[in-house]
Amino acid sequence: MPSLSRYLPILDWGRRYDRDAFSNDLIAALIVTIMLIPQSLAYAMLAGLPPEAGIYASIAPILLYAIFGTSRALAVGPVAVVSLMTAAAIGQIVQTGTAGYAAAALTLALLSGLMLLALGLFRLGFIANFLSHPVIAGFITASGLLIATSQLKHILGIKAGGATLPEMVVSIIGHLGQINPVTLAIGVLTTAFLFWVRKGLKPMLRRLGLGPRMADILTKAGPVAAVVVTTGLTWGLGLNAHGVAIVGSVPQSLPPLTLPDLSPELIGQLLLPALLISIIGFVESVSVAQTLAAKKRQRISPDQELIGLGAANIGAAFTGGYPVTGGFARSVVNFDAGAETPAAGAFTAIGLGIAAIALTPLVYFLPDATLAATIIVAVLGLVDISILKKTWAYSRKDFAAVLVTIVLTLAAGVEIGVATGVILSIVMHLLHTSRPHIAEVGLVPGTEHFRNIHRHEVITHPDLLTLRIDESLYFVNARFLDDYIQDRLTRAPRIRNVVLMFSAVNSVDFSALESLEAINHLLKDRNIGLHLSEVKGPVMDRLKTAHFLSELNGQVFLSQYHAWQMLTRQNMERICPTGS
Amino acid sequence: MPSLSRYLPILDWGRRYDRDAFSNDLIAALIVTIMLIPQSLAYAMLAGLPPEAGIYASIAPILLYAIFGTSRALAVGPVAVVSLMTAAAIGQIVQTGTAGYAAAALTLALLSGLMLLALGLFRLGFIANFLSHPVIAGFITASGLLIATSQLKHILGIKAGGATLPEMVVSIIGHLGQINPVTLAIGVLTTAFLFWVRKGLKPMLRRLGLGPRMADILTKAGPVAAVVVTTGLTWGLGLNAHGVAIVGSVPQSLPPLTLPDLSPELIGQLLLPALLISIIGFVESVSVAQTLAAKKRQRISPDQELIGLGAANIGAAFTGGYPVTGGFARSVVNFDAGAETPAAGAFTAIGLGIAAIALTPLVYFLPDATLAATIIVAVLGLVDISILKKTWAYSRKDFAAVLVTIVLTLAAGVEIGVATGVILSIVMHLLHTSRPHIAEVGLVPGTEHFRNIHRHEVITHPDLLTLRIDESLYFVNARFLDDYIQDRLTRAPRIRNVVLMFSAVNSVDFSALESLEAINHLLKDRNIGLHLSEVKGPVMDRLKTAHFLSELNGQVFLSQYHAWQMLTRQNMERICPTGS
């Protein structure tokens, strides 16, 4: 049943599941579960939701992705960027902390899930390609800065607000008088400890003689240690009485069955954010999945990934969660810990289910500042300012896309930042193609190859003008070619034949066809031949359907060399070398 | 003073003005003036303005264009499409027939003039290139149908309304009971007469022995004859007492000095329509000007044309007019009548000035139905349904653009129709480039030329895979190339070297560079060489700034033939012919 296993990849790997894979998956699941408990609580806080929402959002979605997804190592659940976007989308509509807020998060997850599913079923995964690497890099970096700044209030123990970077900074400065010194001490020490775990612990453990894998696992357990120590201190010293904000009581329960708010007004307001969350979540997830699959020479199917993520989000919507996607950090840990199949995800879900029932009372005294420190250290790893330097060196256009995306994401939010970055990238690309590079070419001596007369020592002929058009011809540049040839002929009155070398013309649309017809008439009026060479198959097929070829005042040559031979044969003695 | 005469072309042609040019210009002006009097009244009616606005809009704008414009034959003034767009833009905001309506038309002309001027000064004329030929053709055809339908009420003598085709048809049907039979008789007979003048008069005059030019002039005077006869009949028989709507009293005056309404609210509402009117007016005008200039081997400067049209519209705003542009019909008449310089336009302005003072009382009894007939016959000449057939034969994408533009212009108005047509054209172009044509190529025997193995009999080598990528590489297709090569290698495990033939790759952006780096790493891991051939100068310059070339697991070859020679030298005996 190849068609069924296409939509249910579990039928494929499930059939070959054995004991080795089971034990590997189980170990990976244990490590990921330990890492996910504090992370899930922290991201729920970032999304403006109660802590248990983060754990619930990791259980059903992971199981559903295990059935429908194609990546062997992807771990699905709450991630930083999507949590931020959830808070931004719902925060504009509903008051944080209300029941309506949590219901709206379910609606957002449902809408996002349905959109992902529809994109997958209609095989529209390619729309993610419109997010260029510079836009993604700029948006991820800016989100990291935004998220880190948004958590500063928990480290300082103040009640600041704001949705954009300037708003947050102003609000934090306005509330500096209310800093809680005990919270600040916990926050700063935990942040410093976690940074040290990230940078210094692993080399130290290796020097102490631990194997690389064990050192890695202990390093990943750093946040758990921070949680245990700060929770213990807060409980032992009664720090919550000194104004330290704590997580408080979390219900002891498996994920509940929940119904999203389906009021048309709310759905209308959330459609656009849901689309953006879907696309960005998909891009993040598919990037991670492709990277990990390539390491084991496996392949993922982007359209089926959309279906897997769609199912995961729909699952989140009905089990008290919020929008989820395949996370970078959790997936890499899962992969490094040896996960072989999506069953590792299922075991993680079981582990988190046990945690949700048994462990939630233990986090009552967990300080918010510890969670904030976990988030800050995680997201600052996403910030990569070097993309500005790299794109500046390579291309000013790509640099502009990164810069605009970063600045607008920080100043006006993720949606405006990403949308402007995408539109700017498209406009810059179109403008680039609107003034094509056109090279006058000549024959490289001793070969049949033709190159730009200004870059290579080549042979030309005074009666013959050969122009290599370095762009597909379409409406945006149709007029340009017409103008260019008219100008060029005015400056070279001796020319008897013009060859347009079509080796780089990948398509000719109707507007460009009309321009070519106009050029043909113009040259015919002036008694100048118009020829084409090296026309690609698809372009030739298209031109044959029009009358252009039958009216062409010249010939179509298979190769430029053939055109050269035919058009210069009469006057070989007049060929002269040129070039720099 | 080359720089001054660039902005003031009058300094250029004015210096060489002589007696011959003067007499030719004077004759052309006389003919155009006679044609413009009924046309100006009719288009003002179409725009929902009093008749004199049409005459005023032809005087100052023509003079200003004569100073700043570069076309020798373009005649600037009210045109059908811009009149329709003016009515649509203002009709949504102000009640037709009020003083506020006329003031808003002045504001629209001022905004349009300032935008055109700004586009010209910043040399942004290329934005008109985003209107593809199919979108323009579709929009012109739909506008012709819309305008003709909008005039039916004057032919029928009823008070119908509506802004879109369905609205108009419903409104006309609802008012059919109020048809005025006398008006209907005048309207139908005039329309039939004008159609006959268009199709039948000229051949008849030629058969009667008249010269072609004289026959042409008499044909163009047809509308004047219709005006004279129907006005005379209405006056003589007192038809206005039988319910025939007439033009009525028109002030006897030169264009007055007027001030546009500058309230910020009105300006805000008119910004977008003004931009669209500017761009569409510019496209119409520049198309006519280029066509006429090419016939005399003259050149126009699109950016200076923007300045000329900008000045004309600003002039219209302060002299009781409304948005103007270079009209097709009037410009062709001007050209055919022998106009040599923009002075012909100035003489036309003088003629219309005299008409505004002396002739306006004569049009008191002119029936609206006659003007409507003039418009209908003129605009039905714009309707060209054959564009649907032509684009269908050439390309389904271009056909879709025409169809969507026509349907939406008719059903939802010019602004939505054109905007959707432009966006659809851009999206279809981007989608086309998102899945590039990639051809596997081999050597054409006896040449150094490489072609698609599926279209030509070529020689290939089993160790060597040569892919010609028929598209610039940029973010929209960056992932596609990566996927394509991975798939291709899975199906051909024997390959030792991959050559990417870059003859059709006109640019490589940062996203595509990262994809190329990923492909390079992938092939390096599998011990397969990655080579490039026929990389264009601008692309090579760009790749040199990145580290890609130094890390490339292979070489860059000047020509594909050179790559072939180098990479197959060791195993020449294994070369085998393939192909159909």
What would you note in describing this structure?
2 copies of one chain form a homodimer. The first copy, chain A, is an alpha/beta fold and 580 residues long. Chain A has 2 domains: 2-9 and 22-399, no CATH class; 436-577, STAS domain (Transcription Regulator spoIIAA), CATH 3.30.750.24. The first copy, chain A, has helices at residues 2-7, 10-15, 19-46, 51-68, 80-91, 99-121, 133-156, 165-174, 181-207, 212-220, 222-237, 264-295, 302-318, 328-336, 343-358, 368-380, 386-394, 396-412, 414-434, 475-490, 510-525, 537-545, 548-551, 560-568; strands spanning 76-77, 325-326, 437-443, 450-452, 459-460, 464-470, 497-501, 529-533, 556-557, 576-577. In chain A, the strands form 3 sheets. In chain A, strands 4-3-6-7-8-9 form a 6-stranded mixed sheet. In chain A, helix 3 (19-46) packs antiparallel against helix 14, helix 9 runs antiparallel to helix 11 and helix 19 (414-434) runs parallel beside helix 20 (475-490). The longest helix of chain A is centred in the middle third of the chain and has 32 residues, at 264-295. The N and C termini of chain A lie far apart (65 Å). Residues 572-580 of chain A have low confidence and may be disordered. At the A-B interface, helix 7, helix 17, helix 19, helix 20 and helix 21 of A face helix 7, helix 17, helix 19, helix 20 and helix 21 of B.
User: How big a fraction of the residues of chain A is strand?
Assistant: 5-15%
What is the helix tally of chain A?
Answer: 24
Q: What is the alpha-carbon Rg of chain A in Å?
A: 31 Å
Q: Greatest contact pair?
A: A-B, 68 and 68 residues
Q: Main sheet of chain A?
A: 6 strands, mixed
Count of DSSP strands of chain A: 10
What does the oligomeric state look like here? homodimer
Structural class of chain A: alpha/beta
Mean pLDDT of chain A: 88
Categorize the overall geometry of chain A. Answer: elongated
What proportion of the residues of chain A is helical, as a percent range? 55-70%
Distance between the termini of chain A: 65 Å
Strand order of the largest sheet of chain A: 4-3-6-7-8-9
Number of domains of chain A: 2
Transmembrane segments (chains A, B): 21-41, 53-68, 75-94, 100-122, 134-152, 172-197, 217-250, 270-294, 306-324, 344-364, 371-388, 400-427
Keywords (chains A, B): Membrane, Transmembrane, Transmembrane helix
Domain STAS (chains A, B): 454-553
Protein name (chains A, B): Sulfate permease
